[in-house]
Specification:
2 domains; mainly alpha; Tetracycline Repressor, domain 2
């Protein structure tokens, strides 16, 4: 969720790949944890928790903890299945070739089993302990990430991250549904904030990882349409995102502290996009793209954190 195709066949083609070893003999708990994409999981859990806290119905702390655990497990399971599906592609990219599967530290079967177990267990636990609506949304987000984004969109269309970004936008809706057993316009706006944030966030990454994606054959926007078009699209989406982030104030989800914070944070996000667009030299462009990518993560954290603080 918020969420991203056996063995070492591709890894052996690389000049500095790890020699073939028995994955069972070198696997560690850290390797299995990396399969869950913990950095992505952190953002998913955080936005899911914010959705829960922003809901108008208070939730028992024990049930809230179960809901957050389920969101984490489902996101991690979907991430593990994503790594299983893309293990051969990962072996071709510098930034992913040392992941547990392409490096041979974990077997493909183990990774798939872990992913399926996490998705199934989290869905079942959410349905039993919390409510059916949140369980359905949880499963839908995982399936969307696995089948719609990873299998269908990512290897086939330049619009992969635009449509596929919906998978990572589900967590605040899931948290809201866990607390209320209902979906209203407010959690849909939270969904839209993440949905519109995802393209500029990911395209900033793909600008400086363009060669990796080209090597793996992924039709990312900079690979297919070029860097200049990517920069234009980054700016367009940051501009479209700006007014959407102000809507929680008008819906009563947050107050004026959030409103002016969103104005300031959004202005800086637009400024980051303008800096990326202005830099034409590849070296400078990649530097500003990295900076924008880093800021985009900070931006989303602060948007949701301040929204929760303002509500409380």
């Amino acid at each position: 969720m918020g969420f991203q195709l056996c063995g070492l066949r591709y890894g052996l083609a690389m000049t500095d790949a790890i020699p073939v070893q028995s994955a069972a003999s070198i696997s560690t708990a850290r390797d299995y944890f990396q399969l869950l994409k913990p950095r992505v999981m952190l953002l998913v859990v955080f936005t899911g928790l914010c959705g829960l806290l922003l809901a108008p119905v208070p939730m028992h702390p024990f049930l809230a903890a179960i809901a957050v655990l389920c969101i984490a497990l489902s996101a991690g399971g979907a991430g593990a299945i994503n790594m299983w599906l893309e293990r051969d592609k990962d072996a071709l990219m510098n930034r992913t070739r040392m992941r547990p599967l392409p490096s041979g530290r974990v077997t493909a079967d183990d990774a798939l089993a872990l992913g399926v177990f996490c998705v199934a267990a989290s869905t079942g636990l959410m349905a039993i302990a919390v409510n059916g609506l949140s369980a359905v949304l949880l499963l839908l987000a995982a399936l969307f990430y696995i089948f719609i984004y990873t299998i269908w969109l990512k290897p086939r269309t330049v619009q992969n991250i635009v449509i596929g970004g919906a998978a990572g936008a589900f967590p605040p809706m899931i948290g809201w549904a866990a607390a209320t057993n209902d979906i209203t316009l407010a959690p849909v706006i939270l969904f839209l904030i993440i949905f519109m944030w995802t393209p500029p966030h990911f395209w900033a990454l793909s600008l400086y990882a363009r060669e990796d994606y080209a090597r793996a054959g992924f039709p990312m926007l900079p690979v297919v349409a070029g860097e200049e078009e990517t920069k234009i699209q980054i700016l367009v989406y940051t501009l479209l995102l700006f007014p959407i982030t102000l809507l929680p104030t008008f819906l009563g989800t947050a107050g004026m502290i959030y409103f002016w914070s969103a104005v300031a944070l959004g202005g800086l996000f637009i400024l980051s996009a303008l800096r990326v667009m202005r830099d034409t030299a590849n070296e400078n462009s990649y530097k500003t793209a990295r900076q924008m990518f880093g800021y985009s993560i900070f931006y989303l954290f602060m948007i949701f954190l301040i929204m929760v603080i303002d509500k409380s």
